[in-house]
């Protein structure tokens, strides 16, 4: 390839999420890539369009008991919980290391009270390495009887507003799919100032072992991810993208360049790949490398042209 | 998580070619795979993460121990029991088929400090025996004397006994007494018939590892165990496979958890809470 | 097998859904088996534990435009709509034919207003061939802006109450999984007099064709069924069975005797098989025939012992 | 949905054995399958519903037309184009592999009323050509004269032209003129070079069928078309594959819809709205 062609290839994949520029639309999804160190042994992380790191909380969390994963048809369940070393260690040990790759870092933040979220958001968003916060609203809200922040439009909007107030970087709200009406949650969150949306988080699922008669996961139920949930993600992104103006990072079962384009047509402006990293540690660069050829096949010059270009029937 | 440094070569993925795949015991298969990955498999006790089917069912890889590697580093062997869908699909592979392998992964058995003339006991149970074979070969190469104690459910499940007996004395135990002595591997350890030993290396089912911990935790003899857990990524990124450090280990390492796939699967017997 | 053994085998699979006796717990799911005629060419339908027939409305419905099905990883999408010949023809042409098999017939009923449902329920439930009604509450409620009856606990409960008032047979309410809180819907519906629950109906999903850039389904989105949704079904049945006392017919991706037992452990008292009929027309009798051996392996005498016997971890 | 009665034998499922599976054109394969099901495939125009993989991906069966059956009814042939995942998996099958087949399904081409000496035109496009081959064989067996008009995108896609030419005259058309005459099959029909005919049977892409309808709908000449639609069950139970009857057909049959899988795939040209 000549230098000229190479530049063109790079440009074709460039996307913008509001003020955030990404040289390609593919990043690993939160919780599926640690803080990047493990996958750095397989390839140069600067190839990525961005990186979403594991949910970060005020204090260290040890997560749920094991077993924490189970296999389902074309999917997996996880009940990792919010295990992470706490924001101070993330700030001191992980973020500086990530700086070398010069890619936008999305820090997924979590908590059990609004105050928790605000504290993490304030502190993390001051770090120069951080491009955006990803607000994980699927967490149980201890002040509301443990019901997830993400299931009530007003609760989700209030949380968004408070976090926006303190954040120095754009805030993407990561929506839970386990809701009756994702559109109204998205709309409220947009009104509350969210700069973008990430969707979808995992569906709630469960498996029971026939021999022990107990749930396979020690936590009983867990989050369903992987190709099995892709049609649900596509439907929700399609619906939401027709109702909000803020950009959407799409995720849920992506494992090929074709999947990426399907998410773009549904309304995504960038994508995240989760579970597929476990199947193929090279999946992110492979998908990125495969995109230009697919765009050629589809007669499309720049991938950003495809966002929301799915047509009604 | 041992202090000992050991050569750990890079992991990658490869479509490896099946050279053979044959039953070695009831429901247990030995598969030989060829490819360049084998030359990185220099550390006994490491494992590979294997894609068992071509599509998304099963979705996740399956962790299987490295059982042996030929001296040229051209192929390796794994021995696996058919448990569920993943291992069932593996068992259907025929020579010439390919299997996508990610590895070598994890920290194996620390052996670089072993001295010729030492006496080491290997304690294995069921499909925990395979990694001990590669370990035994490496130890014998160093001039270490190896005694194996391997336990199975019954005669039909016994494997690797003959291969191990070429490397040193082997005690076989079965639950029903249909082969070797009736009982558990720990019965042999506590029977008094064993010569004294310098270190113990073990891999097997959780109850076996727990029994070993009970026997030796309070002592000072060098002992290592290889631990199993359901895995996601296999490389330390997803936190599926964590286990808790013992209070001592927590203090010493400053770690609040270990990842079995990347800190282990081999741990110091006194280092982890089972 | 001796005659004696055969009798025993039959008894081992017997289940009760309230007053309804089934000689085994397996029935085809509504919409996946027509009115039985097509599958009668493959085997004797009297082998089934029961049969749930396609949604029936007051008038004939022609359903949605085609394409109506799409493939997804370990699942499928359908947007058949409520196509059916209307209650009068169901009563005159289909139900009398089904009588010969002497198995409980569950008539799935649907509508767009409460009055619709009541009219169908009243008329259908008078037929001696009908064992129970299965109230499909996933339909859009035209009087409430098209939002499905199944997404609001009170709307679902009101509908249940009205239908119960006129029905001469037990009423099973078929719950939609596309809700934030399925427990409260189940509880309300139980309080409103439901005799049982069927769960789950399909998850809402979508696929987009990369070439045409349009949804694969002419109706844009459709219902996701098949193995992909099994973990969601198990989770919901587990949750609901811990909150209600009425029996549950479990469904969602069942394709083996093992799946049946998993649904029982989660809380089901019987099961329905949908999508798997399309893959293997003999799936229902094959699963039924495979159950005794599985029960042996698990050391269980009667399958009914397993309902709700999943243990907490 | 034709009035003509025709022998329709029972459908069932069978693990059939692949005898051969070879490319016949660019991206198009011919697969021969052996099994007892073949003896039920007596009616040209019927199809089989094929499980392309072993697991749940792809989940649904794929409808493929019966292209030929040997005279002993021991094996049958299908010709398919690799479109997506299902047909891709099919194309990887090798002799000795098995494929689960459900069939024969649907109502084929009505031919029992055809008389020796009649002239019939077969009009096929792309992977719509295969069922016409079996049809041609059956018609020729009855002494009917058969002319085939088959259209493809370009030369590389042409198949069954030689086989059909052993049964009667064959006109090949390609979109780019790289083989046969340039243009569409309907160009041949309207060119005037065709002898007059007693009946037309067709199978091909929707635009082709629509063009035929436009040409002949208002006339009275006997004409049948085989229609495609995405299918679920393939046996008439799920209502995935419905199509609308023409006003006339609606009145005549009292039907408000037809199921392509079980009422079709073959319909009278004037019977359905495309
Ligand atoms: C480090 C390590 C080394 C291992 N080495 C061997 C070996 O050499 N030979 C051998 O026969 N087995 C070994 N195992 C166990 C082996 O991984 C499981 O038997 C296998 O994953 C079962 O997969 P399945 O699809 O057949 O069963 P299923 O029960 O269908 O698997 C379902 C899921 O559970 C996981 N799982 C089930 N059992 C285990 C288990 N015991 N440990 C971890 N995950 C499990 C699977 O990986 C899969 O994700 C090892 C496990 C670990 C963690
Ligand atoms: C009655 C009938 C007979 C057919 N006979 C032949 C034949 O002889 N040779 C041949 O090459 N093709 C034939 N087709 C088309 C063939 O069924 C599709 O090409 C095939 O299903 C594509 O499957 P896939 O997994 O490769 O593609 P994918 O696009 O991945 O399939 C996705 C889904 O769409 C369905 N689908 C895609 N295209 C079609 C289509 N054109 N018609 C119906 N369903 C479709 C598939 O069955 C599957 O459910 C026939 C179709 C019908 C309805
Ligand atoms: C093991 C695992 C851990 C995850 N942890 C988080 C997390 O900490 N925060 C979060 O917002 N999402 C988390 N997710 C959800 C993913 O980021 C992603 O939204 C989801 O898995 C769907 O994408 P996929 O199908 O590509 O995996 C996790 C998913 C998995 C599988
Ligand atoms: C083609 C199709 C048509 C269906 N029609 C109906 C229906 O009319 N009424 C209803 O309550 N459920 C309907 N369902 C849902 C099924 O009854 C069942 O709840 C769902 O498919 C989950 O089961 P499965 O995964 O075994 O298919 C339909 C499902 C399919 C696939
Ligand atoms: S399996 Fe992912 S961290 Fe160990
Ligand atoms: S495919 Fe099911 S009715 Fe035709």
Describe what this molecule looks like in 3D.
The complex is a heterotetramer, with two copies of chain A (313 residues) and two copies of chain B (274 residues). Chain A is an alpha/beta fold and 313 residues long. Chain A is 32% helix and 19% strand. In chain A, strand 5 and strand 6 form a beta hairpin. The radius of gyration of chain A is 18 Å and the shape is globular. Chain B is α/β, with parallel strands linked by helices and 274 residues long. Helices cover 18% and strands 33% of the residues of chain B. Chain B is built from six helices and 17 strands. The model of chain B has no long low-confidence stretch (mean pLDDT 95). Chains A and C meet through strand 11, helix 6 and helix 7 of A and strand 11, helix 6 and helix 7 of C. The structure holds flavin-adenine dinucleotide (2 copies), flavin mononucleotide (2 copies) and FE2/S2 (inorganic) cluster (2 copies). The site of one flavin-adenine dinucleotide has 23 residues of chain D, from strand 4, strand 6 and helix 1. Residues 47, 58, 60, 62-65, 78-81, 83-87, 127, 130, 228-231, 265 of chain D line the site of one flavin-adenine dinucleotide.
Radius of gyration of chain A: 18 Å
Average pLDDT across residues of chain B? 95
Instruction: Describe the sheet with the most strands of chain A.
Output: 8 strands, parallel
Q: What string, H for helix and E for strand, traces the elements of chain B in order?
A: EEEEEEHEEHEHEEHEHEEHEEE
What is the multimeric organization of the chains shown? heterotetramer
**What's the overall geometry of chain B?**
globular
Outline the low-pLDDT stretches of chain B: none
Shape of chain A: globular
Quick gist of this model?
Chain A is of the alpha/beta class and 313 residues long.
Structure keywords:
heterotetramer; A: alpha/beta; eight-stranded parallel sheet; 14 strands; 19% strand; disordered N terminus; B: 274 residues; alpha/beta; 6 helices; binds flavin mononucleotide; binds FE2/S2 (inorganic) cluster
């Amino acid at each position: 390839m000549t230098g000229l062609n190479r530049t063109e290839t790079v440009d074709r994949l460039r996307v913008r999420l509001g003020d955030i520029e990404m040289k390609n639309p593919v990043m690993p999804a939160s919780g599926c890539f640690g803080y990047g160190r493990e996958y750095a042994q397989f390839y140069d992380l600067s190839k990525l369009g961005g990186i979403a790191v594991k949910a970060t909380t005020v204090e260290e969390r040890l997560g749920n008991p094991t077993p924490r994963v189970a296999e389902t048809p074309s999917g997996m369940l996880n009940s990792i919980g919010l295990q992470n070393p706490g924001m101070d260690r993330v700030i001191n040990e992980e973020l500086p290391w990530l700086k070398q790759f010069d890619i936008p870092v999305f820090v997924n933040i979590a908590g059990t009270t609004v105050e928790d979220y605000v504290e993490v958001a304030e502190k993390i968003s001051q770090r120069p390495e951080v491009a955006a916060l990803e607000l994980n609203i699927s967490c149980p809200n201890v002040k509301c009887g443990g019901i997830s922040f993400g299931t009530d439009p007003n609760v989700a909007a209030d949380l968004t507003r408070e976090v926006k107030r303190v954040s120095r970087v754009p805030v993407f709200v990561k929506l839970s799919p386990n809701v009756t009406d994702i559109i109204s949650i998205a709309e409220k969150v947009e009104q509350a100032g969210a700069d973008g949306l990430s969707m979808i988080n995992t569906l709630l699922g469960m498996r029971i072992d026939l021999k022990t008669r107990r749930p396979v996961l020690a936590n009983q139920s867990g989050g369903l991810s992987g190709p099995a949930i892709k049609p649900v993600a596509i439907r929700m992104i399609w619906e939401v993208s027709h109702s909000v103006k803020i950009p959407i990072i799409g995720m849920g079962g992506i494992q090929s360049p074709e999947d990426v384009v399907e998410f773009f047509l549904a309304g995504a402006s960038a994508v995240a790949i989760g579970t597929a990293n476990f199947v193929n540690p090279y999946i992110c660069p492979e998908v990125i490398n495969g995109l230009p050829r697919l765009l050629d096949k589809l007669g499309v010059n720049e991938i950003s042209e495809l966002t929301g270009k799915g047509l009604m029937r | 998580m041992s202090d000992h440094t050991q050569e750990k070569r890079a992991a990658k993925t490869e479509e490896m070619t099946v050279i053979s795949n044959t039953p070695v015991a009831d429901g247990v298969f030995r598969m030989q795979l060829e490819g360049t990955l084998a030359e990185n498999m220099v550390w006994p006790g490491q494992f590979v993460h294997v894609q068992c089917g071509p599509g998304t069912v099963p979705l996740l890889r399956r962790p299987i121990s490295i059982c042996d590697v030929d001296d040229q580093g051209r192929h390796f062997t794994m021995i696996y029991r058919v448990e569920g869908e993943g291992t069932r699909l593996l068992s259907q592979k025929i020579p010439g088929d390919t299997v996508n392998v990610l590895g070598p992964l994890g920290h194996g058995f620390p052996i670089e400090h072993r001295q010729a003339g030492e006496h080491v006991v290997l304690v294995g149970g069921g499909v925990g025996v395979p990694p001990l074979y590669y370990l035994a070969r490496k130890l014998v190469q160093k001039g270490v004397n190896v005694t194996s104690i391997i336990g199975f459910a019954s005669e039909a499940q016994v494997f690797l006994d003959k291969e191990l007996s070429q490397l040193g004395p082997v005690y076989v135990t079965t639950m029903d007494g249909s082969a070797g002595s009736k009982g558990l591997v720990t019965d042999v350890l506590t029977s008094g018939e064993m010569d004294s030993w310098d270190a113990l290396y073990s891999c097997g089912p959780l109850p076996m590892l727990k029994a070993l911990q009970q026997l030796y935790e309070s002592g000072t003899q060098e002992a290592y165990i290889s631990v199993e857990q359901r895995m996601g990524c296999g490389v330390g990124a997803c936190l599926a496979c964590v286990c808790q450090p013992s209070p001592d280990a927590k203090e010493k390492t400053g770690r609040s958890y270990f990842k079995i796939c990347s800190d282990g699967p081999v741990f110091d017997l006194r280092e982890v809470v089972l």
